[in-house]
Amino acid sequence: MGQSLSIRQLEAWYGTNQTLKGINMEIAANQVTAIIGPSGCGKSTFVRCINRMHETLPGSKVKGEIILNGESIYGQDPVSLRKTVGMVFQKPNPFPSMTIFENVVAGVKLNGMRNRQNLQTIAEKSLRMAALWDEVKDRLNYSGMSLSGGQQQRLCIARALAVEPSVLLMDEPASALDPIATMRIEELVGQLKSEYTIVIVTHNMQQAARIADTTAFFLNGELVEHGPTSEIFTNPRDKRTEDYITGRFG
Amino acid sequence: MSTDNNRLYESMGDKVLRYVTLLMAILVVILMIWIGWQMFSSSQESIQHFGWAFITSRVWDPVHHIFGALPFIYGTIVTSVVALIIAAPIGISVAIFLNEMAPSTIRKVVAFLVELLAAIPSVVYGLWGIFVLAPVLRQSVEPWLTKWFGFIPWFKGAPVGFDMFGGGIILAIMILPTITSISREVMAAVPTAHREAALALGATKWEMIRLSVLSYSKSGILGSIMLGLGRALGETMAVTMVIGNMPKISSSLFSSAYSMAAVIANEFTEATYSLYLSSCIEIGLILFGITLLLNIFARLLVWSVARGPKGGHLV
């Protein structure tokens, strides 16, 4: 099941450049939350703070609090946090030296699971959830790199799902894909929200409108507005949101 | 078809560039074949005189006109293997540390120092081997190894200091920069996306290095080891100065020996009759052949590692 997140006074720096300026936001469980905004507004940094990937970059700094299921994530070991908060990146990044099967179970194996039978069950379940099973079931021992871009991205989603996270972060997961592959990813997001809390970064406003329950608009490191998607797109409260969604800038 | 079209529009300058670079490329090939052929023809006398026995015979006796290359082949291979066993784990560890753990100031300083090792002339390594390494080996390291690991044939016997063990250690130091700097470069080329893929799955630092960095760069690391091995096989001066220069075959690393490059360097000027000279050149030919075979083998190995699973392509 998904878990809820509450973000309090979150600030992040990259070197001397402050990329997030006091974000306060509630993310409901089992919903799709879209983060939109122009390039450089801090939306990627924001999701990368949720699984503490931001800190892995040299020169980065974070302040504030993120509460996941009642517990501060900054009090946890980032390694175990990332097993609860999975992530899918902008460019599909399967491990190039591994087969499709090995890619899916890579995270499960890190957790110490070795039983071949169990691994197979998990691999099939994850690939089915990622809507990839039917396409790859006969060639699980082929390289992950042998798949098309869209399939690779669904493979990465399956890999993230296999460790059974409760939150799934997606950082522009469809921006490197063609329209058909994008559509499949969007359908998938809709199906996954019954099991996971999904936070998806997108620069594509139509995508946000299609798949998100709530949408948050970021600008220059600040959260301008966060509300039900229909409201954000039809009746925004803030002038800047309106300017952005009507295409006046960005 | 398209290449033909392109050539039609090729400018004069590009044409010149193409032919000049082609000529240089051909030159390298010709040089290689020429060296091989020259050695082959100059060693005809000894090849005809001894046949295959040259490679299998252990006797090297210029006084009685009997020549066998086995002790030199043995000495070269054993010292090179010892060097690899010592240098490969150290070199790869240093590369991992510099690339993945060290703060950037330490990385720059240490990487520079390691590369500086490659700039030291081999005769200086030899001198250091004679005056520092050999005494230390003879007085402390080798007696200690004999005491505790003497049941292994490699560590048996009375330590002399000037032996295959010393030669291997000198070689290890000399090939360390090759292994370290090339490994480091291939590790630095691993895309951030692969590292983040592992970290986002909840990998620890070591698991990330294993899953993303090492598996992505293993063919390059293997290549760096093979380059190091190539250098070790051919290294002459430093080995000559510490190996003891005795043409014998012993299972103990603490025994003096001789290497192919060393015997050529030492005895070439003393080769007073043609069979002697021819034998020296044949040793050169064998060294050439071994290096060639090794490189082919290395290529195959790197290729098979880089291939990865079906339908994939690494790097």
UniProtKB/TrEMBL annotation, chain A:
Q: Name one GO cellular component term.
A: membrane
SMART domains of this UniProt entry? Answer: AAA
Q: Which InterPro entries match?
A: AAA+_ATPase, ABC_transporter-like_ATP-bd, ABC_transporter-like_CS, P-loop_NTPase, PstB-like
* Record's protein name: Phosphate import ATP-binding protein PstB 3
ABC transporter domain: residues covered: 5-245
Alphabetized UniProt keyword annotations: ATP-binding, Hydrolase, Nucleotide-binding, Transport
Residues of the signal sequence?
none
Source organism per entry reads Desulfosporosinus acididurans
Q: What class of enzyme is it?
A: hydrolase
TrEMBL record, chain B:
Arranged from A to Z, the UniProt key words for this protein are: Cell membrane, Membrane, Phosphate transport, Transmembrane, Transmembrane helix, Transport
Q: Which domain of life is it from?
A: Bacteria
The record's PROSITE patterns line, in alphabetical order, gives: ABC_TM1 (PS50928)
- Domain named ABC transmembrane type-1 is located at 73-298
Where does it live in the cell?
Cell membrane
Task: Tell me the Gene Ontology biological-process terms attached to this UniProt entry.
Answer: phosphate ion transport
Q: How does it sit in the membrane?
A: Multi-pass membrane protein
**What does the entry list under GO cellular component?**
plasma membrane
The membrane-spanning stretches of this chain are 16-37, 72-98, 110-137, 157-179, 275-298
Q: Which GO terms describe its molecular function?
A: phosphate transmembrane transporter activity
Q: What family is this protein classified in? A: Belongs to the binding-protein-dependent transport system permease family. CysTW subfamily.
Report the function annotation for this chain.
Answer: Part of the binding-protein-dependent transport system for phosphate; probably responsible for the translocation of the substrate across the membrane.
User: In its UniProt entry, what is this protein called?
Assistant: Phosphate transport system permease protein
